[in-house]
Amino acid sequence: MSRLVSTPDECVMLVKALPHRSSNYFETVCCAGVGSDLKWRRLYPVAFRVLDDAKQFRRWDRISYRFTSPSDDQRWESQKVDPESIKVLGGIPSAERSRIARLLTRDCQKHAESFGESLTLVRPANIGFSWKRKSDAALDRERQKHGELTAQLSAFQKQVQPLDPCPYTFRFAWTDGSGTARRHTCDDWETSTAFFRRRSALSSEIEALQSLQATYEHDYASKGIRFALGTHKRRQEQWLLVGVLRVDESDQTELAL
Fold first, then answer.
1. Which of 47, 42, 43, 41 is nearest to 22 (CA)?
2. What are the b/e assignments for 143-178, b being 16+ CB within 10 Å?
3. Cα 17 to Cα 244: distance, rounded to the nearest angstrom
4. What SS3 class is residue 255?
5. How much is the pLDDT for 256?
6. What angle do CA 220, 222, 224 make, to 5 degrees?
7. Least confident window among 19-28, 81-90, 94-103, 241-250
8. 119-137 burial string, b = 16+ CB within 10 Å, else e?
9. For the chain, does the N or the C end have fewer beta carbons within 10 angstroms?
10. Is the pLDDT reported for residue 191 higher than 80?
11. What is the DSSP string of 53-83?
12. Backbone phi, then psi, for 185, in 5-degree steps?
């Protein structure tokens, strides 16, 4: 098939990683989901905040879209998406979420690699959630860059505000299904969004951080959790933590952050 041929597809969205700065696409978000064939799709680049409101999907939404095969990414799950073709078809029921998560779950990264996968779900144990505040200089650099990108939006019809960077880097220490201890920086956008929401609702930043810690280490750990892991585009031996999913082992409703 020619890489220039546009192909229709559908998937259920599971992952929205943190926005990354891109001179070509404003801010790109690496998104990933699963098709009706229970195979992964990696959708990139998605300038998510520039999308029309009706196209801004949520985790567990089923979407349709058109894509071409990327010329610069040989991972078989990867698709170059036409953002104008995205349609949100609606969310899926909780029982279907649990079924999908169960069928996509591997013991560890090596288990996923044995299937030729560069995306996977893993059930973590012994979860430890921690945070480190970014320096003022680092935050100023992020704000400046996002401000410059927003000023370049004259090519887009939709105007958006510069992204407010999260002041913390979040990390997880955990154990995979093979018993191997792991440490990952969290690249899940919803984790940062949850911090901002809790900071607004609670009286201090430390309360918001402690609330997140309790959610991940206790609530999620006891009720059901998956880590979504994906390989780095240029260093495919490196696995990144790109999503934290609350999934019941039964058919109960996903806990909202």
1. 47
2. eeebeebbeeeeeeeeebebbebbbbebebebebee
3. 10
4. coil
5. 38
6. 55
7. 19-28
8. bbbbbbeebebebeeeeee
9. N
10. yes
11. GGG---TTEEEEEEEE--SS---TTEEEE-G
12. -75, 140
Neighbours of 8 (CB within 10 A): 9
Separation of alpha carbons 117 and 219, rounded Å: 29
Query: Which pLDDT tens digit goes with each residue over 163-185?
Result: 889 999 999 999 999 999 999 99
* Rounded Cα distance, 181 and 127, in Å: 10
pLDDT at 103 over 90: yes
Nearest-Å Rg of the Cα atoms of the chain is 18
Residues 6+ apart with CB under 8 A from 233: 73, 75
Q: What sign does the dihedral 73-59-33-208 (CA atoms) show?
A: positive
Report H helices in 45-188. Answer: 94-104, 109-114, 136-151
| Pairwise CA distance, residues 238 & 189, whole Å | 19
- Look at residue 167 and give its three-state secondary structure: coil
Sheet holding 239-246, edge to edge: 105-106, 119-122, 225-231, 239-246
The tokens for 180 are: 């191997």
Phi, psi of 193 (to 5 degrees): -60, -40
Under 8 Å between Cβ of 58 and 66:
no
The two structure tokens encoding residue 181? 């201890």
Looking up tokens 């911090």 gives: 195
